[in-house]
Amino acid sequence: MTAYLARQVIQLAVAVWGISVIVFVVNFVIGDPINALVPPETPEETRQLLRHQYGFDRPILVQYLDFARGAVVGNFGESYLFKKPALSLVIERLPATLQLTVAGMGVAILIAIPVGIISAYWRYSLIDNVATIIAVAGQAMPIYWLGLMLILLFSVRLRWLPASGYGTPQHLILPAFCLGVFTAPVAMRLVRSGMLDVLSQDYIRTARAKGLTEWTVVMRHALRNTMIPVITVLGLQFGQLMGGAVITETVFAWPGVALLLINAIYRSDIPVMQAAVIILALIIAGVNFLVDVIVAVLDPRVRLR
Amino acid sequence: MAEKDSVELAWEVADRWHWFYKKGLISRRDFLKAVLVSGGVTAAAPLVAACAPQPAGPTQPQAPQRPAKDTISSAFSSDLPNLDPHMHNLRFGIILHYHLFDNLGVRDPKTMRIGPHLATSWKPVEPTTWEIELRRDVTFHNGDPFTAETVKFNWERITNPEQKSPQRGNHEQIAGVEVIDRYKVRVHTKSPYPIFVERLQNFQMVPEKVIKEKGDAWFAEHPVGTGPYKFVEWKRDQYILAERNDNYWGPKPAFKYFKYRVIPEVTTMIAELLNGNIDVFRPVPTDQVNAINNSGRAKVVSQRILRTGFVGLDAKGRTAPNPFMDVRVRNAANHAVNIESYIKSLQPGGDRAPALVNPMAFGYDPAIKPHEYDPDKAKSLLAQAGYSSGFEVTFNRPNSSLLPNARLVFEAMQRDLEKVGIRAKFQIHEARAFTDLVSQGKGGPMYEWSWGYYSVFDADGILWDMLHSSSPFNYYENPELDRLLLEARSTLDEETRKRLYSRAQQIIRDEAPVIFMWGFHQLWGVSTAVNWTPDPDEIDKFYTAKPA
Questions:
Q1: Most buried of A108, B17, B166, B169 (most Cβ within 10 A)?
Q2: Is the ipTM of this structure higher than 0.85?
Q3: Residue-range domains of chain A with CATH
Q4: What's the 3-state SS for B78-89?
């Protein structure tokens, strides 16, 4: 177990380092970061001065080492725009993002598991076909479009829920639902196929032969074994969920890390960009790590690999 | 308190399950599960509550929930970096700060000239010295008086290199400020500075004592001004709330609160406008105009703005030798495009700028007539220049544009140019890299461009930056034009300046260094619940709004 965990931690560290390099380099590929800080009318002398003040005129390797040294101890530097430590700006917005992603994940699970089970149980029935169509549609719909449609329907037309903002449970409903619908289909298909696989196994026949109710057979015996791959996939989906959150937060004006990140990108606020991407990467990597551990605990065979 | 309650509750629940278990109603295994689940849920409740948005504190007025409309609200697409008016140059920050602070002068939306505000009058006493008289009845929101010392402090702060104000460039001509008496100052400029008066607007007066006592970092989050609204609170990436200053020296706003929300997505802004959660936003995408107008809840209002568009031509071969180095080809391009029809069918409006200068700017000469649409003339000019079978050319464009319907406009232009033989091929660039491209001389032979004048309503605001040979944005060189532009920015005499700019515009019109387009019109969405109109200076002044 210890060796397994150690291997996972090393993988995680390499992944995060790789991400940090990409984030750092991309900034210099896009163009002069000064352009995002000042209007086009700004004279060249002012630009030079700013370039020097921000250290953009140093060799790129020196800039990277400087950045990496700070990043290791959580110092991403001061935001160019906010003049505050970049990390604290990210941490400040983390609860809102976590709230949204956890709620989105909850919605996804609430949709995926029951629908997956029903689809598998009544395979090729009308209900299975409808669920399949909805799943495909859910995957095909851009989350951005879905968000706007939800706003138009529930907010503008029906006036049941607020279109944007933050502050009450009502504000959470639309964004969480949007994110959940986006995430659910993959998990749902997986529950379905896993369930189909398990339902045809011998021990299920044994359970039925014992005279157990169908409910007990499905919920207690079949679902449990189906859940192992589902948990793994949900862990992987968490990364996608974070990606989805970037768009969801933008559409619903949700004051999370993603919104901060988008603005940082627009305005070339490099320290905030770096801090946000690396924190998000750490969270995603952390969740996947946790999932691996849970699966290892649930399924002893995993550790032997 | 809440935590204790939930722990007690968890105990009660567990106790109840225990009772079921003891009665033999549930198995031991089920009892343990039940306690775990229900206990977990109740114990987690305060955690969830802690993560959940905090209810409004006592400082926040419950403005949005009240039935009577006492709040005017607008939205901007991304939050401000700070609330110090000297430490950013974002449009939405300028708008906010017109509410929290005051300027020495403000633009009269009718004449476009700067009128008195905190300054009651100003005059040049020497070519490089201006004397300013101040109001005597102005105090900051914390009670500090506004005096000549305040003005001196403000100019010294913004021009101090250590302060690193992004607006420092606006005031680089200021040499020093001298306090004459408590309400009179003299401002010295490095050379005669005709657009000095333009610098009296969008220069908000901040309180010296507060900044010296509490520091810049504190002030950046707790702005104290003299304006019609007082700062209440700032929730990052959510909103900024301000309350009416009942001691304001000027006309008091009709709405008690002013709320500025952060909404990144324009479609969401439209939804919030239609829901009545915001009252004003801009810019409205042109394809949404009907949807808003037909909603019955809001309408779209258009207003001319100073930003002026054009297509840059590499007349001096800065990028590479090209056909536009011939003046006949540049004029041909101007005759080939049907500017009037683009404005009519693709724009919410537009003011033709036949020699780059926007009709609202000082120095604009209405006697200069735009190039007429005449494809035959264009063809014959091209033939004279030796391009009777036309030529191919790259047309550089950014992937996002401030021009409404930009893609359609430039596609129409492309078709018109092709009709006379100029086959322009679009090359689309990332917007941020595009500015580099143009300022580093790689924009040629053709590039989409527009200029906001830095909000200075003066011909100098565009002609110097676009056409003077010293500017990084210059793709045309003419010593005579250079001389006229320099002379015009070195004298205070308005008649002389007008004459110089007329000459300059005649040269520009004839030399056609660009394909001339128009001054943009912008669209605002305004709720039917308020009475408000936007100004051409793009500084939305919500303190003038009234309930409808």
A1: A108
A2: no
A3: 96-256 (1.10.3720.10)
A4: CCCCCCCCCCCC
- We report the CATH number of the domain holding residue B427 as 3.10.105.10
Candidate from A37, A42, A167 with C-beta closest to B169 = A42
| CA–CA gap between residue B439 and residue B444 (Å, rounded) | 11
In the numeric block, which tokens belong to residue A92?
């400040």
Residue, of B78 and B381, whose pLDDT is higher: B381
The residue of A34, A35, A37, A41 whose CB has the most chain B CBs within 10 angstroms, and thus the best one to mutate to test that interface, is A41
Q: Which two tokens stand for residue A286?
A: 């952390």
Whole-prediction pTM value? 0.79
Asked whether residue B343 falls in the same domain as residue B362, the answer is yes
Q: Are B150 and B205 in contact (CB under 8 A)?
A: yes
Domain that holds residue B23: 6-51
Give the CA distances from residue B317 to residues A127, A201, B470, B478, B526, in Å, rounded to whole numbers and listed in that order: 69, 77, 16, 13, 46
| Position A271 pLDDT exceeds 70 | yes
CATH number at residue B130: 3.90.76.10
Instruction: Report d(CA A256, CA A237) in Å as an integer.
Output: 19
Instruction: For residue A189, give the nearest of A245, A133, A240 by alpha carbon.
Output: A133
Residue B246 belongs to domain with CATH number: 3.40.190.10
Q: Which residues of B touch A151 (CB under 8 A)?
A: 267-268, 271
Task: Judge contact between A261 and A124, C-beta under 8 A.
Answer: no
* In chain A, residues 177-236 whose CB comes closer than 8 Å to chain B: none
Task: Tell me, yes or no, whether B322 and B404 share the same domain.
Answer: yes
Same domain, B518 and B528: no
Residues B366 and B340 occupy one common structural domain: yes
